[in-house]
Amino acid sequence: MGDREPIRTDLRLELFVRDVAASVSFYVDVLGFRVAQDSDADYAFVSSEGAAIGINAAESLPCDHPVRPTPEERNGRGVEIVVVVDDIHAAHAMALTSGWRLADTLVDRPWGLADFRVVDPDGYYVRVTNRSSRQ
What we know:
The protein has 2 helices and 8 strands; from the N terminus they run E-H-E-E-E-E-H-E-E-E. By secondary structure, it is α/β, with parallel strands linked by helices. The strands form 2 sheets. Strands 1-4-3-2 form a 4-stranded mixed beta sheet, covered by helices on one side. The chain has a 4-stranded mixed beta sheet with strand order 5-8-7-6, with helices on one face.
């Protein structure tokens, strides 16, 4: 704190999933990400302007790895992924057009932003929200 220069950071999520292709399809078709590099059955990388997500096959993790879910566990418990977009109405229309079931429809929130929510194929909870209250 004090007089130190802030450290420049970028954030990339690494999600561990049961079906890489299904997760890639979700992030591309429902949320508008693009495949950023060639992918295979065990790994894909998707991105959108300021966001990057590595999608990994959970089964490739060692059995005792701390983020590998057991068969009865839902991935992403206790985590909310927030995707901030310039045009919430366009993002909402894309999600609806994809046919994916929304967890919560587009709502204007009391704090001045609007958002909708979806749950990805592995149970990761995603809130899509607008960048500012002036939309």
